[in-house]
Amino acid sequence: MSNPVKKTRLHDWHVNRGANMAIFGAYDMPLWYPSGAKEEHVVVLTRAGIFDTSHMSVVMVKGFGARDLLQICFSKNLAACVGKNQQPLTPGRSVYGVFLNEAGEVIDDAIVFQFDDALFMVVVNAGMGAIVSAHLKGYVGSRKASVVDLTDQVGKLDVQGPQAARIISHILKRPQEVFTHLPYFSFKGHFDAAPPTAETVTLTDGTSILLSRTGYTGEFGFELFVAPDKFVDLWQMLIDAGQPSGMIPCGLAARDSLRAGAVLPLSHQDIGAWLFKNHPWPFALPYEIDGHGFTKDFVGAAALQRSDSGEYTVAFAGFDLRKVSAADPAIVLDNRERDIGRVLTCATDIAIGRHESRIFSIASPNKPDEFTPRGLSCGFVKVTRPLEPGQIVRLKDKRRTIQVEIVADIRPDRTARKPLAKFLGK
Amino acid sequence: MKEISQLNLPQNVRFTEDHEWARKEDGAIRVGIDDYAQDQLGDVVFVELPQVGDTFAKGDAFGSVESVKAVSELFMPLGGEISAINKNLEESPELVNTNPYEGGWMIDVKPDDPGEFDALMTNDAYLEMLKGL
Q: Is residue A400 classed exposed, middle or buried when 0-12, 13-18 and 19+ CB atoms within 10 A define those classes?
């Protein structure tokens, strides 16, 4: 008997809304709604989009040995990971990193949130709760640490886009308090009905939520966590509150094209069962401020330090919106038509375009007059030699060959880190 | 996505298993993709068409239609020479979604064998095929 398809609590809502559904990570999820993947991508840059992300897994790590356990297993040094001066992680702050195996390969990427010295929340990808929990438990030893897999037991959704804070304000009891001092990768509140945290975030109907300034689009926005029995209500409250501002529900297609343009990896596609070295995400590793060496030892560190795979993962942007199909597979050709690697991700960021060799987005404050971007293909390749930004390669699948440029960044002028104050008020 | 009962499957066109339609138009056969195909694909952002004068056999790939998410190949419902292509699709590929049977038409074909058109499915037969999918 095959595994039944899993559904989030919003599954019927998505279907009734006319979503085009598809299986992702064992869950039947909306790819796009009748608005279409193009509008859903653009709306996150111009207004706001709301995404059902409750298929992702939450794992709690508790006890006086919790911090130690995470220091052993997680790729960031919790004592030196916040800000450019590498301050310690403190309650109300979160950090992005990966869990590696002893061979230095990625098991999954994750965000670790600290509630207090003995309570951490780890958010991983869909279907990964059990695997990451088992991995952590394997390193507990004699420490006083427990790992609790809360897969399917926490409601989570994302609100992303310039209107995100204004829209969420409408459903909060004390919005002005909540939206004071909430920098990128910080959070307030808890999804427990009796929240163990000092600062609570309460909805107008009394529900407790955890409001996190994180997301997967690279744009300004939030992730909201809530008890599962309140999840559908929270979603509907936001749908209603967001309607006057033009917020629409967005599916996984837009989520994927937005994250690709934001140079963010997709677990098990851009990062995975190969050495986590030579890639565009050094911020996921605990480098010294000067970049030489790690500030701590952790599972996989030795493999990263002693080995090299001779492979390099780099980002690219095309010259028009035409893609190749990475699944074909699609190969990478250098300027002498030699096969130098594979395409990991090739998506279309429909909100960007080139003008006189620079890339602008529809949201770029300095974009040229009458600039209407038609979209560019973009994503990641894994190749057998180092490539520099500016170099041109060709990507070839069964059907076509496209010319692309290796780049340090893709969609410019992203808003995720911009000050909160910029997005509040009228 | 649309339910089968919500699909627009006109009487005056024939259909293929690959969800293309074909219709007699001024001595040529006009071809495009149908409502089921455009609904499944989502927002069309690019259509790759052959050149006028190119020749293909029935079943050959003659181009591709690209959505934000993926690229799909287009297959000849019948063999023949391309006598016209819809240049509007270059500027407005979304016509394939909004008007798949009229404004979103793709190619005109001068057929080698008129029998190939007659062998294509009527909308009733195509509907039955969809139900079995």
A: middle
Number of domains chain A contains: 2
Assembly ipTM? 0.90
A201 SS3 class: strand
Residue A69 lies in a domain: no
Closest CA to B79 of B42, B114, B32: B114
CATH number of the domain to which A253 belongs: 3.30.1360.120
**Is A76 in contact with A112 (CB distance < 8 Å)?**
yes
Residue of B nearest to A16 (CA): B1
Quick check: is A234 in a domain?
A: yes
Structure confidence at residue A357 (pLDDT): 82
Residues of chain B falling short of pLDDT 70: none
Please indicate, yes or no, whether residues A203 and A320 belong to a single structural domain of this protein.
no
Is A249 in the same domain as A172? yes
pLDDT of residue A426: 52
Partner-chain contact A38 B43, CB within 8 Å: yes
Identify whether A182 is part of a domain: yes
Q: How far is A347 from chain B (nearest CA, A)?
A: 7
Query: Taking residues A238-248, what's their average pLDDT?
Result: 98
Distance from CA of B39 to the nearest CA of A (A): 8
Q: Which chain B residues have a beta carbon less than 8 Å from that of A257?
A: 68-69
Q: Does pLDDT of A374 surpass 70? A: yes
Please judge whether A37 and B97 are an interchain contact, meaning their C-beta atoms are less than 8 angstroms apart: no
Q: Which domains does chain B have, with CATH numbers?
A: 27-131 (2.40.50.100)
Per-residue confidence band for A197, with pLDDT thresholds at 50, 70 and 90: low
* Residue A398 covered by a domain: yes
Tell me, yes or no, whether A221 and A355 share the same domain: no
Residue A251 sits at φ, ψ, to 5 deg, of -100, -170
Q: Mean per-residue pLDDT for A21-39?
A: 95
**Residue A128 contacts by C-beta under 8 Å, 6 or more apart in sequence?**
A57, A107, A108, A267
Q: Measure B71 CA to nearest chain A CA, in Å.
A: 7
In angstroms, rounded to a whole number, what is the distance separating the alpha carbons of residues A56 and A155? 9
- Cβ of A399 within 8 Å of Cβ of B73? The answer is yes
pLDDT of residue A339: 98
Full residue range of the structural domain in which residue A199 is found:
11-54+154-259
Contact B64 A32 (CB under 8 A): no
Residue A240 has pLDDT above 70, yes or no: yes
- The answer to whether the Cβ–Cβ distance between B64 and A18 falls below 8 Å is no
B29-50 confidence digits (pLDDT tens): 999 999 999 999 999 999 999 9
